[in-house]
Amino acid sequence: MNIKPKVGVVSCSGECCSLGTLSRVATRLVLEEYRPDVTVTICLPLFLAGELEEHGFAKEHPTIAVDGCGKLCARKAIARYSNEPADSVVVGDLLEQWGIEAPASRRELDDDGVEAARRLAQEISGRIDRIRGE
Amino acid sequence: MIADKFIFRVKKSLLYSPDDVWVEALGAKAKIGVTDFFQRRGGDIIFLEPPRQGDSLTRGSRFASFETIKVVFDVISPVSGVVTEVNAELEPNPETMNADPYGKGWIAEVTITDVGELDGLLTPEAYLDLMKGKVADEMKKIKGM
Amino acid sequence: MGKPVLVIPCSGIGKAFGSIGRDATFRVVDELRKGKTDTLCLSLLVMGDEEARAKIAGSKCVAVDGCPLECAGKNIVRSGGSIAAHFWVMELLKENRGLKTGEVAFLDENGVKLSKLLAERIARKVDELEEEDQG
User: Fold this and answer.
1) Mean pLDDT of residues grouped by 10 in chain A (134 residues)?
2) A45 and C41 in contact by Cβ < 8 A?
3) What pLDDT is stored for residue A47 in this prediction?
4) Strands lying side by side in the sheet with A63-67
5) What are the boundaries of each domain within chain A?
6) Chain A residues contacting B, CB < 8 Å?
7) Most C-beta atoms within 10 A of its C-beta, which of B122, B142, C24, C104?
8) Cβ-defined contact of B46 to C15 (cutoff 8 Å)
C-alpha cells in the first residue's frame, strides 16, 4: 500500500514587509483552495513557542518552508526544531525571477498583490505535488 | 490518538457518553465536562451558556451550549439528575474548556437520580474507539487545517 | 523623542484571530501612530536576529495575541523583551458578539471592523505609554 503523507506548509510571519504578507496569503490559499486535502498548516509562532503538536508533525512529515525574504525564518526554525524542510520557497526571489514588484502595502494586498499570491500558491502547490511523488 | 498534527486525549479515570461528554463518578454525584475531541472539533470557545444550580437534567437532553467563532454546539447530558454546582470560572473564561477540558474546564456537578445510568456509559477504551471513528469522519470534512 | 513603542502581533496563521491582530498592528504602526510605533517579525526575534534583539532592548512592547495560547507574549518575554501592554483578539470578540468571523487569508467585513476596533485601543494605549514617559 502506497501511503502518501500530508505536507506541512510553514509560512514566515513576516510583519516587516509586504513579502511576509504575500507569503502568508499564498500559504493560506494553498491550504484552503489549491491543496486542501493534502496539506496541514504549521503555525510558526506556535511552533517557536514549543507547541507539541506542531513539533510532532514537523518531525514525522515532510514540510515546505515559505519565507518572504532571505532571512529564512521559517526554513531555519523548522530545521532547528525538527527536520530540514523537504523544500523551501523564498517569495522575494520568485518575484524577482518573474519580474513582479513587491506589493506596496504590507497590510492589504491590492489586485496585483492577490494575483501574485495566487501565482505563488500555484508554485508552492507544484512543489507539494513533487514532494508527494505526484 | 494522533491525526495529522492533532493529538486527541482520553483520560483513563473517567467514563464517557457517545455525545463526547465525560463523567467523573463521585458516589451519588458526578462531575461532567466535554472531552478533548469535543473542544477540539469546536475550536476556540468564546461564549458559554452554562446550566444553573438547581437545573434538572435529563440524560440525552441538552443542558448547556457553547459558541465558537463559527458554530453553536449543544452539550448533551450523560446522566439524569439535579445540578448542585456550576463551574463559576467558565462563563467569563470559556476558553478554559479548550485549555484543560478534563481538569479546570469541568462544567457542572450533578446529583444523579439513577446511579444505574453510569453502567450505560463508555469506558475510556470504548470511547477511544468511538472517537477514532469520529476523528476519521471529521478529517474528511476539514480542509486546510 | 524616546524609542518607538513596539507593537508585536502573533500573526497566527491557523485562525482568523491572528490575521485580525496583524491587520490591527499595521493600522497602528503605518497609519494611526506612525512614527511613534514600530513592529518587528516575531520569528526573527525568536531566532535570535541581532537587529531584532537590539530593537527590543529598552523598548516598550505591546503584545497582540490572537488567542489564549499567547505566542506573541511568550516569545517576547523569552527573547528578553518586556511587555508594557497585552491585547487578545479573542477578548475583543467576546465584547462584540455580532462580529464573528472565520476568514484567515483575507479579512471579511466583520474582521475589518474588529481590526479597526482593536487598532483604536492599541493606539490609545500607545498614547498612555507615551504620557507615562513624559510624566
Assistant:
1) 77 90 96 92 82 77 94 92 93 97 94 97 97 88
2) no
3) 83
4) A39-42, A7-11, A63-67, A87-90
5) 7-131
6) 6, 8, 28, 31-32, 36-37, 39-42, 52-54, 56-57, 61
7) C24
8) no
Compute the nearest-CA separation of B90 from chain C (Å): 13
- The subunits that touch chain A, with at least 3 C-beta pairs less than 8 Å apart, are B, C
Q: Under 8 Å CB-to-CB from C109, ≥6 apart: which residues?
A: none
CATH class in words for B2-120: mainly beta
- Residue of chain B nearest C104, judged by CA positions: B144
Sign, CA dihedral A53-A58-A59-A61, equals positive
Give the residue on C whose Cα is nearest the Cα of A109. C106
Q: Report yes or no: B12 at the A interface, CB cutoff 8 Å.
A: no
Domains of chain C: 5-127 (3.40.50)
Distance of alpha carbon A64 from alpha carbon A85, whole angstroms: 5
Residue that has been written with the C-alpha cell 471529521 in this structure: B138
Q: What is this model's ipTM? A: 0.91
For chain B, what are the domain ranges? 2-120
Query: Is residue B145 within 8 angstroms of chain A, CB to CB?
Result: yes
Query: At a CB cut-off of 8 Å and minimum separation 6, what does A111 contact?
Result: none
Average of per-residue pLDDT values in chain A? 91
Mutate to test the interface with A, among C15, C17, C20, C41 (most CBs of A within 10 A): C41
CA-based R_g, chain A, Å? 14
